[in-house]
Write a structure and sequence with these properties.
The chain is α/β, with parallel strands linked by helices. It has two domains: about 10-20 and about 95-230, 3-Layer(aba) Sandwich (Rossmann fold); about 25-90, Orthogonal Bundle (DNA polymerase, domain 1), CATH 1.10.150. Helix content is about 40%, strand content about 10%. It contains ten helices and six strands; from the N terminus they run E-H-H-H-H-H-E-H-E-H-E-H-E-H-E-H. Strands 3-2-1-4-5-6 form a six-stranded parallel sheet, with helices on both faces. Helix 1 packs across helix 4 (about 70-90), helix 3 (about 55-65) packs across helix 4 and helix 4 runs parallel beside helix 6.
């Protein structure tokens, strides 16, 4: 079975898109900044979600006019907090219906890959805890493994090269953050799909270039597969 739109690759974000994020990421950013005396709201973090986290933290420091602070140790604190969350917290789990949806897409011959603004060490903890590699996904890449993270297209292009896909119109990029939409657009993806299961509101995603907005990844098979593949 093949997708009616000839999609060969779906590239999905992690936190808030495929993995439940009840404020883990924004909270860790806030806590790491608070530890050096910078207090920001969760709403301030939302616009930089999805970006490589060292860049996101530097942007937040710039917005707070804090040239006296070095982003590197704040980022390192963030990483420690995220690793602890993803190793230990009981709410680290796939968003409802996501595993079933991704397995159905894989059964149809579509490659399923993750990309993220996290570093590789955090990503590996998540993927290992969920037992996803080779069972649910075909690959995962992090922003520190490419020259440029989101909104640049480098991570999508990595997965395309890895799986021998040359036509970006046969790629679907899926995510919950503004940077996801920009990344998919910059890569020339045929589908740039926003999901409302994470940090961004419908209005925020609608303001970005996109092809579709859906409630969650659970709806992807209905969007990408022919009717006969859904039974």
């Amino acid at each position: 079975m093949t997708a009616m739109v000839n999609v060969e690759l779906v590239v999905l974000d992690i936190a808030g898109t495929t993995v439940s994020d009840p404020g883990f990421v924004a909270g860790a950013v806030q806590e790491a900044l608070a530890a050096v005396g910078v207090t920001i709201s969760a709403e301030c973090v939302t616009p930089v979600m999805g970006m490589p986290k060292p860049i996101a933290i530097q942007m937040l420091l710039d917005e707070e006019n804090r040239p006296d602070l070095d982003a590197k140790p704040i980022y390192e604190d963030f990483v420690v907090r995220m690793k602890q969350v993803y190793r230990e917290h009981s709410d680290v789990k796939p968003i409802e219906g996501v595993e079933e949806a991704l397995l159905k897409l894989r059964e149809a011959g579509i490659k399923i890959c993750l990309d993220t603004g996290f570093s590789q060490d955090i990503t590996e903890i998540i993927v290992e805890r969920l037992g996803w590699m080779d069972r649910v996904i075909d690959g995962a890449i992090s922003s520190d493994q490419v020259e440029n993270g989101r909104p640049a297209p480098d991570m999508i292009e990595h997965h395309m090269k890895e799986h021998g896909i040359t036509d970006p119109s046969r790629v679907a990029k899926v995510g919950d953050a503004i940077a996801d939409m920009q990344e998919g657009t910059n890569a020339g993806c045929g589908f740039v799909i926003g999901v409302l299961s994470g940090v961004s509101s419908r209005a925020e995603l609608e303001a970005q270039p996109h092809t579709h907005l859906i409630g969650s990844v659970a709806e992807l098979p209905g969007l990408l597969l022919p009717v006969e593949a859904l039974s």
